[in-house]
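[Primary structure, fold]
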Amino acid sequence: MEAGVINLERKKVIIIGAGIAGLSAASYLQRNGYDTEIFEAHSLPGGLCTSWKRGDYTFDYCIHWLMGTKKETGFDIVWDELGALVNEGGEEVPIYNPEVFNRVQLSDGDWLSFYSDAGRLEEELLRIAPEDRKRIQRLIRDLRSMARLITPVDTEKWGGKDWLFFLLKHMGPVLKLREYSRLTFEEFILQWRSQKLQEAFRALIPPCWSAVAFLMGQAAQDSQSAGYPLGGSLAFARNIERRYLALGGKINYNCRVEKVLVEDNRAVGIRLADGEEFYADDIVSAADGYTTIYKLLEGKYISEEIEEIYENYPLFPSIIHLGFGVARDLADFPAREILYLPEALELPDGSRHQYLSLNIYNFDPGLAPEGKTVVTVLLNTWNDSYWLTLAEKDPALYGKEKDELAAKVMGILDERIPGFRAAVEVIDVSTPHTVRRYTGNWRGSFEGFAPTPETLSRAVPKELPGLSNFYMVGQWTEPGGGLPPAGLQGRNLAREFCVRDGKEFRSR
């Protein structure tokens, strides 16, 4: 469509960003009679839901477990409608459900396995902390209760009686969800008498986060409703992209949006970095929240609430992602481990790490040649500015520090996996600079606002004050983030458009 021309028969909607939220919004809008077009700065779909090739190895950045991989658990409806778990050949993507969700090494050399099965987990926790028997038994009951919770998705035809029936049926898990969402993880940890259990829990997630972040993930393992789709994150995004394009949608890659065009406080179009302009009836930004509000719209449509959110809400960290292509079959090793480091690893940015989060992709044969394995290590950092500044001002030193960090980590892994260093064929290091370069995420955060008790109790605005025909979806409008809320937001936005325009919502 030519710039400045609006199709009067079908409302035109421009979506900024081809991440999962953008793809979802475009897909649902397209099937409901809207003429949609996505503009994406990168050359690929998915945003941070991505993977990349280095030689014969594929390094996966995003998915470790995904809510909705089991039928009749809620989010499976969204993935089914989007085609996310159907490959190019029309076959269902195989799902890997781990026996051990996480395995933590303690400072005394012992290991604690967070088994996916709640019964085995109970036995393991009792082995470590018999003095916490009653609390362990309560935790297992709560996990099993929360595992039964089904996320309500296809509620477009629900009435008051339907909602009442749902709440009565799921009253137990809903109350548990509410209880744990109000607790910080540190408050949850301090309830335990066992120092070993406290140590293991502290290795999992930041102490200021809501305890529900741990409980929901662990509960979903017991019900096997949050597995890993084989093939990885980019394949997952490609599946959604393929379904959207089959509906007649359009994606423009390598098209960075520089400005949202506004006339009389109504969003009417976009301007690309090359100066080209495109117009539409509605504009949806599924891009970085800070960039959208403060750059694309020049900070003209904000409120005290929005300012307070962006000034004070804690963020997910950025990540130093180290990938290793290893010429060995590591099938005998657990898929996920958190290693205790007697001597903390200090990053060049000043971050200190007492634990190393290790992922061994021995369960996904599509990521490496036969007999070889992809191994990744994730290191959180909140000091994104160090890497951004270093990469811009001294690229040579930036590269050197990445190499030195990779060498340190290989030394650590050589002790855990004898002969590891000698078997490494490919090394890849991603930093906050990499994230900013490819996705524009504010401060290199990998999921927007962190899930603290405060952030989970307040909604982030999806519309901006004083600006009409403009909407936001994605990680920055849903504290806690994650792919399922991103997919669901796209669906909900299309429903709102249909209500507004007097249409009957179609999910397929």
Summary: The radius of gyration is 23 Å. Confidence is low (pLDDT under 50) at residues 1-8. The CA atoms of residues 85 and 93 lie 5 Å apart.
